Amino acid sequence: MSPTASHSGEAELSDPWVALEPGSDPLERVRVLRRAHETFTEAGTVPRPVRSVVADSWRRSARAGVGPDGTASVELTDGDLGSYRAEHPLARVMPLFRELMGTFASDGEHLLAVCDAQGRLLWVEGHAGTRQKADGMNFVPGARWAESAVGTNAPGTAVALDRPVQVFAAEHFIRRVQPWTCAAAPVHDPRTGRLLGAVDITGGDWLAHPHSLGFVQAVARAAESQLALLTPAPTTTDTLGLTTLGRDEALLMAGGRKLRLSRRHSEIVVLLSRHPEGLTGDELLCALYEDESVTPVTLRAELARLRRLLGAGLLGSRPYRLAVPVESDIAVVERGLGTGAVTAAARAYAGPLLPGSQAPEVVRLRRRLADGLRAALVARRDPDLLADWAHAPWGEEDLDVWRTLAAIRPTAPVRARLKELESEQSAPPGWAGH
């Protein structure tokens, strides 16, 4: 690509996930990005040379109320940070991260960082001088670097998108972060597919090279492989593992196989997992379809396809039922709420149940689960748990949670967001907004 990068007719990057292609002039690219960032913050439009992944992230950042002159807030310190890190699944692969990335980070004057699924930094290690500089922007353990809190950045955007991402210089949304470049990749629980967090490398312009993105991807895959070795094998194969929260297509672990279900099959498995005694065809029709004109033939066809996917013996009929027990992330959250283990329930809640589903019974279950958890969080009044909910996509407009959070942790950003929400929600119908 041309190093000028400033002409409106310039070709896009051949790989939109790579920040800077080999041969590009990083200084000129920085100048182009700074002008684009100024245009966006002043006019709300994104000039064409900005990568689509960055443009989309800038828009999400602005919608979340992030300001370009903001800074990250430190939410966990001292003992709270230590105990949280010790219990986090990624603690088991920190020796691997250090082995694979530690020397690279120190020798290259970079930082190795690991965050949780909410974008909170758990570990920041590496070159001492670089760490000292990073302290100035609160790139420190315990700080929240979620995209919804500090805008576009590699670890925060990686967990927001659940995919590897590279962020170069002025692609960062907050100005004080723009001297930095970073690349991060998400890490998942190899058994359930649940997002655990991300591993990140942060430093200078050199990290904009495609190799750094490939490097963190390889490290993340190695960590998932290590976690698979460290995770005890199930004692029995006659249990299904179902992951449904925060995803439109459920993941099903069946006999050592990981199956990604279609949305309709996801809904069926969720409903059958809630009714081990089984459901009749009429009961399933009412639970699944808003449109009463859907015929039993349509449902039988879906069930036949699901039976072929699951394999022999797992889906029974008359009534329709799953032939083996199901362990689901829904049940984990419900058990936590039922026993008063609100922290465990909140950590297990990766988002709304099948958020795109309009199946009546799934909608009711989704609302009941979310309402039960948010009520428990408001009653518990733990500022970190409330902040996790408030900064998540499903909690950005939750007025009760923001009011509770403001009463406990009345920081300027929290008060500003609460004021904005109260203004929006008290506006008369038909108000055009701002």
From TrEMBL:
Top-level taxonomic group: Bacteria
Annotated region described as Disordered, given as residue ranges: 1-20
Residue intervals of the GAF domain: 113-226
Classification of source organism: Bacteria, Bacillati, Actinomycetota, Actinomycetes, Kitasatosporales
Stated name of the protein: GAF domain-containing protein
